[in-house]
Write a structure and sequence with these properties.
Two copies of one chain form a homodimer. Chain A has 568 residues and is of the alpha+beta class. Chain A contains 19 helices and nine strands. Chains A and B meet through helix 9, helix 10, helix 11, helix 12 and helix 13 of A and helix 9, helix 10, helix 11, helix 12 and helix 13 of B.
Chain lengths: 568, 568
């Protein structure tokens, strides 16, 4: 096993050399580069030292269900202790409610480290943060005071209870009901696929549950949101239990629970029947988080593949021996192997850059005074949330599969950890709204919103950055821009919703390629100003983006055109 | 769970309506359509009734290693009994050595069924057939008489022992040694990743082992091939044992063995130091077989996805309700879901058609008298073997992943079987020469062979078929032809072996797209002559090939051009 190392140099490159985060955040936060980097270094220590070593053992031990509820693997307990100690869950949350009030870009990077340390681990703070945000945005002051501080510190965790056997993507079909009981409610119904609904890691767990009030209209406009803890304020165990854990392809250390709510006590969050919009505060946060899971997984996988490819000796490079002193060349000398490693790297580092940039926009969208700047940031966050989720996880899966391929048979067996990464990352394309659902969101809702205002803003932003790029990149990105522009116009002008729905996934991928191309252009230009080996390597990876990933756009626009303007 | 059904209608379509197999094989075999279809029907009965139901239980029980050797899951024993009873392993093997002498196209289709019934099962006859062929082609008459008949009937199985810890792709590094002992040899060394080296399913197991004689030159020209059984002709247990089983991502019912040969008795197959070419008889057969594993897995997966998508009710189709009488539409009505199902179908059925066509060429290459026709068939088989292996398994993996995505969360849990298909099929891209190695074989060896004779024959063959296709397809295939033609010329003209090696995978994929496009063009034309719902559905899938898979070529040629004629 090669140990995970947090990509600190790359993160510093983004913060200082590409995005100039301190300037971009000035007026919103009092932070400088030294502070940002110090926090990242401290997080790396926790993840490298405690979280990452637990990933394999936790998978092998797995979560289990007994008479007293769910038990998490011992390794996960050990990993969580220093995380809670450092209060990393609340890094970027409101200090008035237990958080530490640091910029979101830091949280995004620390979260990526946690994911690179292990996806099963990362879900615990990931869900807690999202639940915290929904409560923070929609609950009464009393509820906020009662529940938020200890969630922010990681003393308690959160969970989201949406899915029912008959209601997955289509939440309008859900049946769990809520009946008033004093100033609270009694929740009754069965929920499935509830991640970390129960565990023995913390003293309490806060569920956000979607249910119907007695007078609720049918469909999605009759759903309300409730806060349903495991332990009630008086210390009593609330009326729900875990009926079963799912047996899954991966994430064995993360319990996926069937939960039976049997008159469980809960409190309304937000207005009656307005539960879905309130839950979307959590869902949007989770979508970004899940995208980061893909990036973290890709980084962990490519680190293993690169280290293996430097060590494993097989054959001679096609251009002549790279290491004539050895019995064979390290396989990284084979262009086909290097291609796989570098492609995974380009996908992962492009995703990291996009997430980091978006994190700045999130802070701007939440902290700027109302006005055109804030509106622009809101537009960009809304537009790119499905892109980060779907592309982050698609690229993450592809990176893990590619990295596994680098190891050959050794990638398929347990020893090197890559088969676990493939099994674990696979679910990120599925949960929190499948990637198909993300594509429908992008094409059906985000593109047409306000007459296409968000997408035009985004394309203009990229266009304005072209002069900052070196020539081959500005040409490449300009080409991607015009392909995307044309496809967007075709989509917005189409009168055939079924055809638009059919190519939604291609449109989302096109946005991902364009977004990555834009940031690779900026990274390439920033690297051209540096003189470390790091900078030269970065330009190599940028070239791989141009030669291997940018050409994907040709297929995508072809498919879009063939479907929206069919020949037959 | 939805039960696996052998795709008999589709196979009949290929045999009778697309390839006219009886005519194509006339002069080589006395078979008519009725006979071919009767055999397929009988095989379907065995696979549907015994093999497929064992797949899930065998995975859960897994293979295990005890003091007496490897034990296979009980379900696999039950699946193998009727298979052996019917002597399906030897369907297309030489009747003089225990086989049944039927055409290879039948064997290809029955093998696909066996794979669709379960990959772990399919490996047993798959390895046996390949070992049989190497012995048949290279061993002495005595060895052939002693070992082949009971392998052909499935009474014994075969295994191939190539890999050593330090020698995977690079067999020149292998160290296992062989020393003469009378007219036999003593084999000593450790081999790893040996599939089904030991099990309790049959009375004997025949290993083909690569080892070095004392006077062997270094590298691949110093390797000899030995037949090393589990039980010696005098009934004694031979001197090898299984040291460990690998813990793998999937194929849990198939034991992947570390084998220690400790002076094990073996017999030379072929000439001394000429073991690698002899082993290639087996390897080429296994490469085709593994490609079929991808197709069988894709078929099994898409059957589950399609059945699930017809049953699962969620949301309303974007063009308006498909089933207003129900609470929601079946998800197959969502264009994005239909896209995934149909894409998997197009990949799988295209692969099946290519494999069926190639099976006819295999018989021609082995049975025609020496001359230009036989030479052409030999060229086509050599050229397309790496394409079938790599594209069959890449498409198979993509199909399984797509099918899993259709099921959402239900695809990630054990219940529906899809997560097992993804875990199991993944190794087909890795073993038997990784798909990267296949691409190097295509681009580095098969394309330049005889000044490009094989590839020009193949392209001319397709060109000659263009008039048989309906217009949109002939245009599509003609376009793919010219893209491929240009890329091949670029590759053959390149003076940069490292760049060629880097884009080898793209070139192989381009060949796959072109080959599938050609056969989809022929299938589309054949379907246009039919009037069953089957034919209309086939044309729908053909359109999906044109709209979604053919456009991949644009990206591929772009990558090839950017790498071989780099801008920077």
């Amino acid at each position: 096993m090669f140990p995970y190392r947090a990509p600190l140099r790359d993160m510093r490159f983004l913060l200082d050399e590409v995005l100039d985060a301190p300037s971009a955040l000035s007026g919103l936060f009092e932070v400088d580069s030294a502070l940002l980097n110090a926090v990242l270094g401290e997080a790396a220590r926790v993840v490298e030292g405690s979280v990452a070593p637990a990933n394999g053992p936790a998978d092998r031990e797995g979560a289990s269900l007994g008479p007293k509820g769910v038990t998490l693997p011992r390794a996960l307990h050990e990993a969580y202790a220093p995380w809670r100690e450092g209060e990393w869950t609340g890094l970027a949350l409101d200090p008035d409610h237990g958080g530490q009030g640091l910029p979101r870009i830091l949280d995004m990077m620390v979260t990526e480290m946690a994911c690179g340390g292990g996806l099963a681990f990362s879900i615990l703070p990931g869900l807690t943060r999202g639940a915290w945000k929904a409560i923070h945005a929609h609950a009464s002051e009393d509820l906020k005071r009662a529940w938020l501080p200890r969630m922010a510190t990681g003393e308690w965790t959160g969970a989201m209870a949406l899915t029912e056997p008959q209601a997955g993507t289509d939440l309008g079909l859900l049946r769990t009901r809520a009946e008033a009981d004093g100033d609270a409610y009694r929740i009754t119904g069965a929920k499935m696929f509830i991640t970390a609904a129960d565990h023995d890691l913390t003293d309490n767990i806060v569920h956000l549950v979607l249910a119907r009030l007695p007078d609720a209209p049918a469909g999605t406009r009759g759903i309300s949101l409730f806060l349903v803890p495991k332990i009630l304020p008086d210390g009593a165990r609330n009326g729900w239990s875990v009926g079963a854990l799912e047996e899954k392809m991966g994430l064995h250390a993360s319990p996926t629970c069937l939960v039976n709510y049997d008159g469980a006590l809960g409190w309304l969050v937000g207005a009656p029947h307005r539960g879905l919009p309130a839950m979307f505060t959590m869902m949007n946060d989770e979508r970004l988080f899940v995208g980061i899971q893909g990036i973290g997984a890709g980084e962990a996988a490519v680190q293993i593949a690169a280290a293996y490819a430097e060590e494993r000796l097989q054959g001679r490079a096609s251009g002549g021996p790279a290491r004539p002193d050895l019995a064979a060349d390290p396989i990284i000398a084979h262009p086909d192997v290097s291609r796989m490693v570098q492609t995974s790297r380009a996908q992962t580092e492009g995703g990291r850059a996009l997430a980091a940039w978006l994190a700045i926009q999130i802070d701007r969208s939440e902290m700027l005074p109302p006005g055109p700047d804030r509106e622009e940031a809101e537009d960009l966050v809304a537009l790119l949330t499905p892109v980060i989720k779907a592309a982050g996880t698609d690229f993450g899966f592809e990176s893990c599969v590619n990295a596994q391929q680098v190891l050959g048979g050794h990638g398929y067996i347990r020893d090197w950890g890559l088969e676990q990464w493939v099994r674990d990352v696979r679910v990120t394309q599925i949960y929190e709204g499948t990637n198909g659902v993300q594509a429908q969101d992008l094409v059906g809702r985000k593109l047409p919103l306000n007459g296409g205002r968000a997408v035009r803003r985004f394309l203009n932003l990229i266009r304005a950055d072209l002069p900052r790029m070196d020539t081959p990149f500005s040409e490449c990105v300009n080409h991607l821009l015009s392909l995307t522009d044309r496809s967007v116009e075709t989509v917005l002008g189409s009168k055939d919703p079924a055809a638009v729905s059919e190519i939604a996934t291609d449109v989302l991928r096109l946005f991902a390629i364009l977004s990555h191309g834009w940031l690779w252009g900026l990274m390439d230009a920033a690297a051209a100003r540096g003189d470390e080996p790091f900078h030269a390597a970065k330009r190599d990876t940028a070239r791989v983006f141009r030669r291997r990933l940018a050409p994907e756009a040709e297929t995508l626009v072809n498919r879009i055109a063939l479907t929206l303007e069919p020949i037959t």
